[in-house]
Amino acid sequence: MRKLFLLRGAPGSGKSSFIVRHHLMPYAISRDQIRLLLANLTVYYQEDADVLHQVIPRHVTVRTEQMVDHLVEHKMEHGETVIVDGTHIVPSAIEHFKPWVDKYHYECFVVDFMQHNTLENLLKRNQTRMHYDWVKPEVVKQMYRSYEAHPEVPYWAHKIIPNQMDHALSQRESNLDRYAHVIAVPDQVEEEDFPHVHISNFYFSFNEKFTEKYGTYRNVVSIAKTEDEAVKQFKLPYFVFKFHHKHFLISAYPIRNEMLDPIRKVKGVWTYSTGLYNVADFIKKFPENSKQHVHQFNLSKLDPTRLLHIW
């Protein structure tokens, strides 16, 4: 959900295996798979080993990059989680995505598969990979040297290692305990009934006029009522929070447990597993669970003309 993951690593570092092992194929855009859609395997003669390899073609690289760009932006336009399987070794390969990250209000995570890999290990894995995944050893060496020279990622991206990806896909609740009151403003509340916005309180707005007036305040959050508001206007489809030591979710419609579970509860902080769902999924109308795993406030069940004082 508005998260872009760039897998970073030389051939043989374990990127594609990670995607398969964690069942992330439906969310991943693979450069090698696109190359194979554009052209069949070709052959390369490895002179020092006197071996003929069938390999993924490189002559379609330009067309491949164009297709990757098109697919990535198409998914980002719809607020979908995007995983790009590629090397992304040099900083410019990461910077390439910055305009879309800004345009579509995304978080970017660079998943580093090189941090615990040695050159010796990469070369060894390259020799034992599936026959058409093999690349020239010099390519692996060059990428390893480039990574060693530029291990850091741009300031606007988050660098994580593979075992942190599950955490990056989660949504941690916000602690609102420091506020005196939490107030929701439904969509049909009249302007004369708007609450006085005070720094000691926190506000959720489903109301266009209230958002126009106070939406830039740090203690005011606008919640989407429609798919267009969530996808095109970048309003939040839901908000999870802790208030007076209790745990809540607010949204336009009830959100099913299946879209939140498993909920991790560590030291009184709840974290929800929402990262692989699309922004628009949270605005869809489903029958609510008979027993919800978190207490929810839903616009569809509120009096739209009256303020809701959550506490």
TrEMBL record:
InterPro entries (alphabetical): P-loop_NTPase (IPR027417)
Domain of life the protein comes from: Bacteria
Pfam families: AAA_33
UniProt cross-references to Gene3D superfamilies, sorted A to Z: P-loop containing nucleotide triphosphate hydrolases (3.40.50.300)
Name under which the protein is recorded: 2, 3-cyclic nucleotide 3-phosphodiesterase
Species annotation: Lactobacillus helveticus CIRM-BIA 951
